[in-house]
Amino acid sequence: MESMSAARLHSVAQPFKVDQIPVPTPGDDDVLVRVRACGVVPNLKNVAYHYPEWFPFLPLPKLPAIYGLDPAGEIVAAGRHVDGLAPGQRVYVNPARSCGACAKCRRGETVACASFTFAGYFGFGQGSHRIFERYPGGGFAEYLVAPTSSIVALPDEVSFEQAARFGYLGTSYAALCHAKAGPHTSVLINGATGTLGVGATLLALAMGVPKILAVARNEKLLAAIKELNPKRIVTHSTLHGPCTEWAKAETQGFGPDVMIEALGPDAPVDATLTAMQSVSRGGRIVTIGGMEKDLPINPIWIMCSQISYLGSAWFTTAQGEDMATMVKAGTLDLSRLEHQCFKLDQVNEALEAAQHRNHGGFNNIVVMP
Ligand SMILES: [Zn+2]
Questions:
Q1: CATH at 204
Q2: Can you give the residue range of the structural domain that contains 73?
Q3: Is the same domain home to 204 and 113?
Q4: Same domain, 357 and 294
């Protein structure tokens, strides 16, 4: 193979166009992956259309750019220094890249690297430009080069469409890990019916959380969340008022041990505050949804109640492997995701579909190059 189809963005806020371009060559420590599915996150259209204006300080891939955040496929070639991975292996490619050489990277805290970058999406620091030079391509192409450190081996139990959802599932999983969620905790998920919220619910179930308090507006979607496990999930629609007293009553008056804040940027401040006010003494609040308004937080409440308020972004390749292992073992059930698959030349429609999901976070928008 010498050339491949790739859907590329040629100028900001213009539709993607499918081009024939050379197949990239993997470096010595890289693999070449034949992409079979790539997830489309709801924010991707914002990145391609608005980020240069909204967030001019965030580095973006050079135009014409191959976007696509969550690729899964098969390895077709490996660099000469690659051990343990071989052609034919089914994989998910974690798009998280870091410099590999700074103090944070050396400690294994790759997400905290100042050059942290999402291949096929955007970067966070000046070092991201260097990373985009080395790994310019995302998943909206037939082939993609990726470093071995990004590879999650997929068991047969994980379909490519399911793996294409690993990005936001992993974001929810990492948040639950930060919060030390498990069989000894109750977990409130604020914004439970969105992409991150559904993921957090599925992962909390997989991690043995005995009581999950799902909070959102849409009653129909909350009913679908409840159906995932009627015994362990209770739901509250904020259409009937704030969740504070309800959440306390559901936890013997103490409040949930953990709160996952999965609300998006546009959420009203009160929707976050009323959920936070329910959290128990010693509780841990982890924000992952991108809610971006200023919150009035009283430090003495944080101090006296020993509350932790944490930010969490993305997840490590090792956590991606955890998820693959949980699916194989049957503890993480992804069968309720509803895949909507698009061909490569339908990328623009896929971006649109990701913005207008008819079944909330259950919808899984996938491009299949
Ligand atoms: Zn680094």
A1: 3.90.180.10
A2: 3-165+337-368
A3: no
A4: no
Question: Rounded to two decimals, what is the model's pTM?
Answer: 0.96
Instruction: Indicate the burial class of 181 (C-beta count within 10 angstroms; 0-12, 13-18, 19 or more).
Output: buried
Q: Could you read off the pLDDT of 291-317 as tens digits, one per residue?
A: 889 999 999 999 999 999 999 999 999
Residues 16 and 109 in one domain: yes
Residues 160 and 193 grouped into a single domain: no
Inside any domain, residue 329: no
175 CA distance to ligand 1 middle (Å): 21
- Give the separation between CA 202 and CA 185, rounded to whole angstroms: 15
CA of 117 to the centre of ligand 1 (A): 10
Q: Which helix (H) or strand (E) segment is 170 a member of?
A: helix 166-178
Dihedral pair phi/psi, residue 350, rounded to 5° = -65, -40
How far away, in angstroms, is 305 Cα from ligand 1 center?
A: 35
Distance 288 CA to ligand 1 centre (A): 22
CA of 176 to the centre of ligand 1 (A): 24
167 C-alpha vs ligand 1 centroid, how far in Å? 20
Find out whether 103 and 113 touch, Cβ atoms under 8 Å.
no
Task: Find the 263 Cα to ligand 1 centroid distance in Å.
Answer: 29
| Phi, psi (rounded to 5 degrees) for 38 | -140, 125
| Distance of CA 107 from the midpoint of ligand 1 (Å) | 9
Model pLDDT for residues 78-123, shown as the tens digit of each residue: 999 999 999 999 999 999 999 999 999 999 899 999 999 999 999 9
The domain total for the chain is 2
Cα–ligand 1 centroid distance for 105 (angstroms): 4
Q: Is residue 317 part of a domain?
A: no
Q: Is residue 321 part of a domain?
A: no
